[in-house]
Each structure stands twice: as structure tokens, then as C-alpha cells.
């Protein structure tokens, strides 16, 4: 892309249309003239049926959707469920990726022409074709709000990240509640700094004592929790920040750690305190990430062991002098206990601020990657770095540069037509035009290149690529300023903006590139910074901010990325969905590519991959040199990257990011408070802008957060390979004579929890003839619910004793929907539509033979795993799975009291050959491999265990995230 006319006369504001006839001349990079991008793609129709893998219930269904054949099942499922607009089953519903891409790209093209970005209509068409090609081939993706809103009748909100402000007045505090609620309602997140609110140690004008910011956090937290449970696109995400010199800083630091103590006490008293549990809502401050803004003055006092002044908000006078080292220890202790607070390094942040004349940077979005002015927002987009890695290990430098040009141009165009949740945010964003270009798949690129994530060579490549991305983005921004004008706030911030650009360029010059790829990329980055700064000196810049490193959760799955944001690979094995609706365990495709890059012959590659598939790690893999082990180090597993390895990577790329980096440094459970102090201190020394840690198992309210015993893996395998259980022969004929149970009869009691409601199910059996009595206990004796459940139990029991078949009850009561409903603590029935739905599914699993349960669609976790394995085997061999299942012999039955659950022999054999753990995501697969549970939340939409994505989490099942993008 080149500038047709560098004059740009007639442009007075960033919102005005170009009247001078200047514009971009667009050159083709990915596309072929005369061939539409859609004609270069092989399309196929698919059925998207999203089921809960735990109980088989259907969450979403749309058949006949159209996607490129190269797109994975997961990517197509997520786009269909998340991004297609229109009511399902109506003619207005989108059904093809073409419609989605056209809806977005046509809007960008039209706005670009209207606002004078292109020299000619032909240039606009080439621009649209290039964007279309890149989206079709998963080269990049806009953030989720673009796909949700652009080109629809809804407000055209394109930003994912928001920063609010609050002053020391009740009107401002109430406005904060309202504005935050509107943002949460739309599924986005917001951050705010509460340091302007006077402390609880200061007086009100009336003479009373102020409440302090922590008290007002309670109301905001309750609002976020209420809106979250109301069913927004994703759960409410928020960030609350307090400056380290605020007099209430110690109370702020202790808030979540104190609540964690409360959670433990309530849990020990028998309350349901798991994430999403019925009683967790009684605990405060759980809907926000907390961060402390630390200054260089404070960190220097920590380093030297001096005192530090806490200052009043009204007059700036010292209220109290504290021991800086003691407060730093308290912060680290709280983070060790509950992962909050994180740190934001205020002086570093504002030293890289392009617009200090307008105001300081005081806050960030919830994931800490967007840092800029109060009452502003940021539009994100991310490039898929693996699309630029050549087969010979080189990097497509020229195509990367051109791709950044296309993406940053499109992102800037979006601000011209975008809508915003509040007018204040709209005014600031239009005046300063903050953008957040970033990338995903860095970890995969390094591994595929044969470079360890935690190595000097890996950091060199990462730094050079990041520098090239941001340098090109700012160069394009300067070119756009010459066409449609600089951002409105540029004139008053011209000198500080230029100073920051020089700082970026100097940091680029300081990269010590040694490898071929790093050297070539840095050489081009130097050209981009030099050219861009010259253009900026002449025209200014169109954007006050250009880049961030976001979590890339949902859009990372959309682009079929193995790794998100700046993260390393989660693990070497992953969970892959199949076209037929099943799933299977595979070794990440990056692994064989990395082995070939390291020079291993094909037969050794196959042997090493087979070893990884069996063990989940590379230790003792046949023929793999120990010096190559670090290439395959991951975030979790046998060889996990040390915490400082993550910090060093962040430090390598931070100087080339306008904003910051969404990333949590994971620490092992045995880490000490001193270790946390070291991480936080080194983050300051290394020039990071923000840093958060998470110590394994530090939170009570995490499902499955306790580490399993060392022999858990062996136990799991032993269960999977256990001998098949016998099927009970049941008498099901009707007879009008009641067959009473003997005085002494075998029974089994199961405790259960459905949607946080706890109860007990006691099932008594005839000694030789199956279920004959059911007893249910919920709530306290004498309550209405307890009485109703007692009467229901008697009615069911008498019916069973008079010969009513259990399957009749099962067919009537399963899928009955009413509250409480949701997650259960039963590994075989993970989701239930109601208590009745759970009870009769459990009874069916325990007392009905397999063939009768199969007709009702009720299976154990092991049986589902066996079915998936059989489906995968059938798909690989081209066999007809339906015919196979229909002809499968069922093992002979004999009378037995208790559980009866045995699938067709072929499925059992398939499971025995290669035990398939009962998992629904890569995180759960990793747990099964390493025999230790991971601290990751369950998806609120589908119940699947999520995987980390930056400082947030993303669900591989449905694409839901806990934060941005």
C-alpha cells in the first residue's frame, strides 16, 4: 500500500472526510487479480450440533452451515454459535462464513470510501478482497465485538476493552455503577482506578468520616455478579485499581485474601463454596481483578528498606508513613493466598504514554493489556503468526508487513462508524483513536522453529517480530495522518508522542539478534521505525496507540491457533473434535514440525510423537536428545516453564507494545511468599507495565483444584481397564400384587449437588431382583421441600414394588427442566436440567442394563469415552459406525445388585486398547495425563473446563471467555 497524495489538505479533524482526493493505493499481496477469494477456497456443508459432552444434551443446533474445508470442526462450531446473526431457524439467520465475512468487510470498505481512505474505488475493492482472503485463510481476526455487531441493526460497537473513571462524589460513583453495568450487559469488561475517592481516614464536608473506596467496591461487585448471572454473552469482567499511596491501601490489599479465609471457613462448615456454588454469592469482591498501582518511589523504598507516605486525597498531605518493605510483603502475601492483587507499574506506564498533556494513564481493562486515558476504549485485532512461518523455517517478513498495513487500516476505519456504550467513551475514543493490533500463536511459532520459549534465541525472535508489528503499525498510522489527518489530541501531545516513538526505535536498536530469522526481522523493523518516525514528524500520527497483546481467546480458536497471545503451548497433547461429532486425543501438530526443524528423520519423528501420545511429555522419548527437551517445554505438565521464564518473555516484548501484555505468571503450589516478592520486584526492574501471578491451588472456589495423589494416573488407567461389570437381569412385567422388600436389604446412598442444591439419594434393592425403593432427602426435616420429597419417594417406591418399570420413570422424569439446575458433582452426570433429571439419570446408570439406557441416551463417562474411541476408529477406517453399533453383541447378563453399565463389546474393546479419559477439553486431557488437576474454571455456558488464555480463560467447547476478545 502506498500513499497517493501526501498533502492531505482540507483535513481538520480525525472525523472529517478526506476532501483533497488523496488516498491509499492498494497493492495485492494475498489475492490474484480477476479471481475472487471465495473462488480459491474449497467449501463444504456441515452440521453444527453442540452437545454437552457430559450428558449428551443439545445446547445448539444449526445444520447445513458452509465453511472452507480447511477449517477445523472447532473453529466452524465457534463461529456458527458465537458470530452468526439472526434467530436460529429463521430465513434471517446467517448460514455461511461468506455472509459473515461480507457483512463485516463490506461495512469496512463502505466506510473507508466514505471517509476518504482510498485513492479510487478499485483500491477499495482490492482492500476488501485482501481482507476477505486473510479472514478466510485465518491469517488474522478482529475482536469479538466486530463479529457480533458490525453490519447488523445493533449498535456498531467494535471495542472490547474499556477504561472508566470515578471522582470523589456520589454522582460520579453512581455513574460508575451505571456505565459499568451497560458495558457488562454487552459482554465486555471495564477497569477503573478508585484512588480519587477519599479514604476512610478522611472527613466529609459535613464533618463525618468518609466510607472509603473499598466500601463502594461492594456495590459494584454485587452489580457485576447480578449482571453476570443474568446471562450475558460472557461473564462480567472488571478490574479495580488503587494507588499504593492511598491511605486505604492495606484494606484494599486484604479484601480478597480475607474473603478467601471466609470461603474456607464456610466450606469447612458444609456450605457449597465451589465456583458457581449456591453459597459463593455470599462472598464479596469475587467479580473483579484487583491491582495496586506502584510508583518508582515506592519500589525504591522497598529496595532500600525505607518509609513511604500515604497521602490524603483532598489535600495531598501525609496521613500516615508506613514501612514500604512491610507493605510490599503484605501485597505479595495476599497474592500468594488468593492471586490478588496484581501490580501495575505506574511510572513505567506513564513514561511510555503518548498523550500525557491530556491526562495520566490511571487504569487498565480487566486483562491489563489496554492502558490509556480514562473514559476510553480499544479495538483489538490479532495476527496468526504461524501463517508467516515458511516451510524452511524462515519468516515471511514482507507479507507480515503488508498484512499489518491492511489490519491497522481496517481497525482505524472502524472508529469512523463505531458506536460506544457512553458518550464520554465515544468522545475520547474518536479523539485519540486507540487501536490494539496484536498476535497469537507465538508459542507455536517458537516451537515449530526449534527454539525454546525460555531462551535467548526465543526472546530475540519474539522481540523482533513484536517490534516489526508495532513499527509497521505506527508507520501506517503516520501515512493515514497524511491522508485523513492525525488524531484530534495530537497537536497538544506532539512532542511526548514523538519522544515515545524514539524510545520504541531505540529499544529496537538494542535487540541483540543472532539468529537468521531474528536478524532479518529486526532489520526490517529498523526500516519501519525509521520511515514511520520521519513520516510522523511531518504528518503526526492517526492513532495515539497502536498495539497490545490480548488473550486472543475466542478468536484464537476461530483461527485454529495452538497457542494464545504471547503464551507458550499449554501441553503437548490436545483434545480435537471430529467431523462426526466425536473427539480424540492428538499430539499437537507443532511437535512433528519442530522435530523436523531440529533435523530428526521421519522414523524418529514418528517414534517420538508416539511416546508423547502415550506419556504426555518428551522425557525419555526414543532418540530425542536431552538438549532438545527445552524446545517442548509447556505451560503445564512434566516439563513446565519456570515462572521467571514467563517474566523474561514479557520483558523481551514489552518495549515494542503500546499498551501492555495480558498474561498471568503461573507459580507452583510450593512457591513461597518470597518467590512472589521476587517475581513482582523483577517485573519492575525489567520494565514491565503490569504483572499478575497465580499460585496453583491457592483458591478454594476453583472446581477440581486440589491436586490428586501421585498414583491418580495409575488409578485412572486401572479403572479404565477394569473388567466389564455384569448386567442385572430385571423383572419388569406388570403384576397387581405388591412385592415388598425384605426387612434387611442391600442399599446404596449417594450424596449429590445440582446447581448448588445438595441432597442424598438412597436406593434399596431386592437381594436378587434390582431396584425396589428410593428415598430422597433435601432440606431440613419438617420443611415443605422435605415433606414433598418424602411423599414423592414413597410414591415412586410403591410404584416400583407394584411392578412399574424403572425405565418408565426414567423416560418421564429425565430432561424435566426447573431450578435448581446446572452443574453437578457426579462425574457421570455433569449437567442436569433439574434435580429430578439428575436423580433418574443416576438411577438409570445404576440399575438399568446398557441396551435399555442406550435407547434413552444415558451413558456413563467411560461408555461415552469408549463410543468416541470407536467413532474415531470407524472414521479412520471408513467403517459404518451405525451399522457396527447396531450389530454389536451385548454381553450376557446375570443377576446382580448395584450398578449395571456395560456398552457393546466392540466399544469396550476400543477403550481397552487405548484407554480414553473422560475429558471434554485440552485442560481435562492434560489432567488425565499428568494425574493432577488444574486450577481452571468450568465454562458457565457448557460446563467444559476452560483453558488459560492470557490472564483470562477460554472454553474450547463453545468459545466463551472470561475476559477480552
TrEMBL record:
Catalyzes the reduction of ribonucleotides to deoxyribonucleotides. May function to provide a pool of deoxyribonucleotide precursors for DNA repair during oxygen limitation and/or for immediate growth after restoration of oxygen. The keyword Oxidoreductase applies. GO terms for molecular function: cobalamin binding; cobalt ion binding; nucleotide binding; ribonucleoside-diphosphate reductase activity, thioredoxin disulfide as acceptor. Belongs to the ribonucleoside diphosphate reductase class-2 family. Residues 742-845 form the TSCPD domain. Residues 48-138 form the Ribonucleotide reductase class II vitamin B12-dependent N-terminal domain. It catalyses: a 2'-deoxyribonucleoside 5'-diphosphate + [thioredoxin]-disulfide + H2O = a ribonucleoside 5'-diphosphate + [thioredoxin]-dithiol. SUPFAM superfamilies: PFL-like glycyl radical enzymes (SSF51998). This is Vitamin B12-dependent ribonucleotide reductase. Its cofactor is adenosylcob(III)alamin. Keywords: Cobalamin, Cobalt, Disulfide bond, DNA synthesis, Nucleotide-binding, Oxidoreductase.
Amino acid at each position: 500500500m502506498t500513499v497517493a497524495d501526501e498533502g492531505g489538505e482540507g483535513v481538520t479533524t480525525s472525523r472529517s472526510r478526506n476532501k483533497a482526493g488523496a488516498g491509499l493505493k492498494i497493492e495485492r499481496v494475498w489475492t490474484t487479480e480477476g479471481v475472487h477469494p471465495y473462488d480459491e477456497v474449497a467449501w463444504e456443508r456441515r452440521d453444527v450440533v453442540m452437545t454437552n459432552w457430559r450428558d449428551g444434551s443439545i445446547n445448539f443446533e444449526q445444520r447445513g452451515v458452509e465453511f472452507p474445508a480447511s477449517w477445523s470442526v472447532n473453529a466452524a462450531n465457534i463461529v456458527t454459535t458465537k458470530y452468526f446473526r439472526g434467530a436460529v431457524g429463521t430465513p434471517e439467520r446467517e448460514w455461511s462464513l461468506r455472509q459473515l465475512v461480507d457483512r463485516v468487510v463490506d461495512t469496512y470498505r463502505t466506510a473507508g470510501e466514505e471517509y476518504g481512505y482510498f485513492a479510487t474505488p478499485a483500491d477499495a475493492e482490492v482492500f476488501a478482497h485482501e481482507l476477505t482472503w486473510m479472514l478466510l485463510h485465518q491469517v488474522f481476526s478482529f475482536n469479538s465485538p466486530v463479529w457480533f455487531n458490525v453490519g447488523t441493526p445493533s449498535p456498531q460497537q467494535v471495542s472490547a476493552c474499556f477504561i472508566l473513571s470515578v471522582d470523589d462524589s456520589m454522582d460520579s460513583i453512581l455513574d460508575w455503577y451505571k456505565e459499568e453495568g451497560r458495558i457488562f450487559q454487552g459482554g465486555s469488561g471495564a477497569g477503573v482506578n478508585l484512588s480519587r475517592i477519599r479514604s476512610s481516614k478522611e472527613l466529609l464536608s459535613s464533618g463525618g468520616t468518609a466510607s472509603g473506596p473499598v466500601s463502594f467496591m461492594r456495590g459494584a461487585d454485587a452489580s457485576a455478579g447480578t449482571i453476570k448471572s443474568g446471562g450475558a454473552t460472557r461473564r462480567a469482567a472488571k478490574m479495580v485499581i488503587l494507588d499504593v499511596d492511598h491511605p486505604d491501601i492495606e484494606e484494599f490489599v486484604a479484601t480478597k485474601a480475607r474473603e478467601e479465609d471466609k470461603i474456607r471457613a464456610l466450606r469447612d462448615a458444609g456450605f457449597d463454596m465451589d465456583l458457581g456454588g449456591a453459597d459463593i454469592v455470599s462472598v464479596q469482591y469475587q467479580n473483579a481483578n484487583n491491582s495496586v498501582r506502584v510508583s518508582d518511589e515506592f519500589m525504591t523504598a522497598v529496595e532500600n528498606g525505607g518509609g513511604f507516605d500515604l497521602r490524603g486525597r483532598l489535600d495531598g498531605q501525609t496521613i500516615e508513613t508506613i514501612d514500604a518493605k512491610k507493605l510490599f510483603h503484605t501485597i505479595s502475601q495476599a497474592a500468594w493466598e488468593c492471586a490478588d492483587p496484581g501490580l501495575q507499574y505506574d511510572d513505567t506506564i506513564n513514561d511510555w504514554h503518548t498523550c500525557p498533556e491530556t491526562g495520566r494513564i490511571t487504569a487498565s481493562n480487566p486483562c491489563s493489556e489496554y492502558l490509556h486515558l480514562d473514559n476510553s476504549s480499544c479495538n483489538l485485532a490479532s495476527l496468526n503468526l504461524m501463517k508467516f512461518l515458511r516451510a524452511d523455517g524462515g519468516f515471511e517478513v514482507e507479507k507480515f508487513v503488508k498484512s499489518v498495513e491492511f489490519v491497522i487500516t481496517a481497525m482505524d476505519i472502524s472508529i469512523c462508524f463505531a458506536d460506544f456504550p457512553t458518550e464520554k467513551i465515544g468522545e475520547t475514543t474518536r479523539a485519540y483513536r486507540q487501536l490494539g493490533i496484536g498476535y497469537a500463536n507465538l508459542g507455536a511459532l517458537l516451537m515449530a522453529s526449534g527454539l525454546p520459549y525460555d531462551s535467548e534465541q526465543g526472546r530475540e525472535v519474539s522481540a523482533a517480530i513484536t517490534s516489526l508489528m508495532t513499527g509497521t503499525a505506527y508507520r501506517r498510522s503516520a501515512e493515514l495522518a497524511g491522508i485523513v489527518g492525525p488524531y484530534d489530541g495530537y497537536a497538544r501531545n506532539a512532542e511526548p508522542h514523538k519522544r515515545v516513538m524514539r524510545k520504541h526505535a531505540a529499544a529496537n536498536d538494542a535487540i541483540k539478534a543472532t539468529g537468521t530469522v531474528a536478524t532479518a526481522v529486526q532489520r526490517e523493523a529498523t526500516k519501519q521505525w525509521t520511515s514511520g518516525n520521519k513520516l510522523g514528524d511531518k504528518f503526526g500520527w492517526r492513532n495515539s496507540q497502536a498495539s497490545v497483546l490480548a488473550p486472543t481467546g475466542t478468536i484464537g480458536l476461530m483461527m485454529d491457533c495452538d497457542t494464545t497471545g504471547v503464551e507458550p503451548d499449554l501441553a503437548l497433547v490436545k483434545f480435537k473434535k471430529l467431523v462426526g461429532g466425536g473427539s480424540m486425543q492428538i499430539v499437537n501438530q507443532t511437535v512433528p514440525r519442530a522435530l523436523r526443524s531440529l533435523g530428526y528423520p521421519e522414523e524418529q519423528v514418528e517414534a517420538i510423537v508416539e511416546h508423547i501420545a502415550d506419556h504426555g511429555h518428551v522425557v525419555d522419548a526414543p532418540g530425542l536428545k536431552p538438549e532438545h527437551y527445552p524446545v517442548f517445554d509447556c505451560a503445564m505438565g512434566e516439563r513446565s516453564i519456570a515462572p521467571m521464564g514467563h517474566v523474561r518473555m514479557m520483558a523481551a516484548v514489552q518495549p515494542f507494545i503500546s499498551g501492555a501484555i495480558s498474561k498471568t505468571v503461573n507459580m507452583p503450589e510450593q512457591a513461597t511468599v518470597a518467590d512472589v516478592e521476587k517475581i513482582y520486584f523483577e517485573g519492575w526492574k525489567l520494565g514491565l507495565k503490569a504483572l499478575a501471578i497465580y499460585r496453583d491451588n491457592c483458591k478454594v472456589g476453583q472446581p477440581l483444584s486440589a491436586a490428586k495423589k501421585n498414583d491418580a494416573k495409575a488409578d485412572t488407567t486401572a479403572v479404565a481397564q477394569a473388567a466389564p461389570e455384569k448386567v442385572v437381569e430385571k423383572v419388569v412385567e406388570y403384576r397387581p400384587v405388591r412385592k415388598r422388600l425384605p426387612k434387611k436389604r442391600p442399599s446404596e446412598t449417594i450424596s449429590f449437588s445440582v446447581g448448588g442444591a445438595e441432597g442424598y439419594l438412597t436406593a434399596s434393592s431386592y437381594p436378587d431382583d434390582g431396584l425396589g425403593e428410593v428415598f430422597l432427602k433435601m432440606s431440613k426435616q419438617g420443611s415443605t421441600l422435605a415433606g414433598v420429597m418424602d411423599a414423592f419417594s414413597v410414591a415412586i417406591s410403591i410404584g416400583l414394588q407394584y411392578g412399574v418399570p424403572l425405565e418408565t420413570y426414567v423416560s418421564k422424569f429425565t430432561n424435566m427442566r426447573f431450578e435448581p439446575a446446572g452443574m453437578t458433582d457426579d462425574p457421570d452426570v455433569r449437567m442436569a436440567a433439574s434435580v429430578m433429571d439428575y436423580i433418574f439419570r443416576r438411577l438409570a446408570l445404576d440399575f438399568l442394563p446398557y441396551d435399555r439406557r442406550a435407547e434413552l441416551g444415558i451413558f456413563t463417562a467411560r461408555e461415552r469415552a469408549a463410543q468416541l474411541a470407536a467413532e474415531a476408529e470407524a472414521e479412520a477406517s471408513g467403517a459404518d459406525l451405525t451399522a457396527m453399533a447396531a450389530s454389536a453383541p451385548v454381553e450376557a447378563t446375570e443377576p446382580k445388585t448395584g450398578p449395571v453399565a456395560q456398552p457393546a463389546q466392540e466399544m469396550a474393546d476400543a477403550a481397552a486398547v487405548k484407554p480414553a479419559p473422560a475429558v471434554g477439553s485440552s485442560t481435562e486431557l492434560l489432567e488425565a495425563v499428568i494425574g493432577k488437576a488444574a486450577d481452571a474454571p468450568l465454562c458457565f455456558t457448557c460446563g467444559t473446563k476452560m483453558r488459560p488464555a492470557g490472564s483470562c480463560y477460554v472454553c474450547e467447547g463453545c468459545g466463551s471467555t472470561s475476559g477480552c476478545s
